[in-house]
Every structure is written in structure tokens, then in C-alpha cells.
């Protein structure tokens, strides 16, 4: 188990250099664009911040997570495709655990982190316009 954890850690660090390093910027950027779009839509519809709702609305947690995966699905799919290509080029095989870690870190977490603040900012500016 220790060897596996070490290999995974070293493989993840190794992704910072070498072929296809552009994806380290591309995936979070795409996730951010989707988060901005969805956060603005949430603000327009008067929905609470997304990430906060995942923790506070236990009855709708599963549907919120499914919505997030669906909304950022293209970015996740692109991330899976790019990491599979990277692994085939570099390792000559596919490591599913590493694939999942990379996709979650580069695509889904940026989406989760940005969608709620965008909602709050958009709501603040739309409220400021209606007050003045």
C-alpha cells in the first residue's frame, strides 16, 4: 500500500511538467467559466449559494451534487480524456485512481469553490442596481 501511495504522489507531482501541461490551466479555467455561468443563473433565479447548500440542505444534497456534475460534465469529460492521453503517453497504461484525483482537483473543485461566490457577487450587484 505504501508503494502505491508513493507512486500516486510521484505521478501526480510529475504531471506539473512534461507533456500536456497546458491542461493544468485549461481545466480549471473551463470549470471557472462554467461556475460563473451557473452562479449568475443561480443569482438570477434567487437560489442560495451552491456549495453552502450542499452542506446545509441535506434533503437536496444528492440532487445538487448531480446537478454540479451534470453542469460541469463537459469539463470533467475533457479532463478524463486529457488525463487518459497523458497516462498512455507517459505511463503506457491507465491508473483510474490517479485519473479520478486529477479530474476532481482540476475540474470539479474549482467549480464547487467558485459557483457560490459568483452567485453572491452577482446578487449583490443586481441588488445594488435595483436599490439605486
How would you describe the overall organization of this protein?
The chain has helices at residues 2-14, 23-45, 50-56, 61-71, 73-90, 96-131. By secondary structure, the chain is mostly helical. It has one domain (2-131). It is elongated and about 55 Å long. The termini are far apart. The model has no long low-confidence stretch (mean pLDDT 86).
Query: Low-confidence stretches at least 5 residues in length (pLDDT < 50)?
Result: none
What is the share of helical residues?
Answer: over 70%
| Tally of distinct domains | 1
Biggest sheet descriptor: none
- What's the SSE pattern? HHHHHH
Mean pLDDT: 86
Q: What's the overall geometry? A: elongated
Beta-strand percentage range? under 5%
Query: Distance N terminus to C terminus?
Result: 61 Å
Structure annotation, total helices: 6
C-alpha-based Rg, rounded: 18 Å
How many E strands?
0
* Class derived from helix and strand content: mainly alpha
List the main descriptive attributes of the protein structure presented here.
single chain; 132 residues; mainly alpha; 6 helices; elongated
Task: Kindly summarize this structure in a few lines.
The chain has 132 residues and is mainly α. It has helices spanning 2-14, 23-45, 50-56, 61-71, 73-90, 96-131.
Amino acid at each position: 500500500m505504501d508503494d502505491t501511495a508513493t507512486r500516486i504522489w510521484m505521478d501526480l507531482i510529475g504531471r506539473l511538467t512534461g507533456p500536456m501541461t497546458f491542461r493544468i490551466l485549461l481545466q480549471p479555467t473551463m470549470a471557472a467559466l462554467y461556475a460563473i455561468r451557473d452562479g449568475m443563473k443561480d443569482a438570477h433565479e434567487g437560489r442560495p449559494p451552491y456549495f453552502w447548500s450542499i452542506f446545509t440542505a441535506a434533503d437536496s444534497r444528492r440532487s445538487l451534487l448531480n446537478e454540479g456534475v451534470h453542469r460541469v460534465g463537459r469539463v470533467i469529460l475533457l479532463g478524463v480524456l486529457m488525463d487518459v492521453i497523458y497516462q498512455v503517453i507517459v505511463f503506457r497504461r491507465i491508473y483510474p485512481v490517479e485519473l479520478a484525483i486529477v479530474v476532481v482537483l482540476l475540474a470539479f473543485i474549482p467549480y464547487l469553490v467558485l459557483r457560490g461566490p459568483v452567485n453572491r457577487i452577482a446578487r449583490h450587484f443586481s441588488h445594488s442596481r435595483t436599490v439605486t
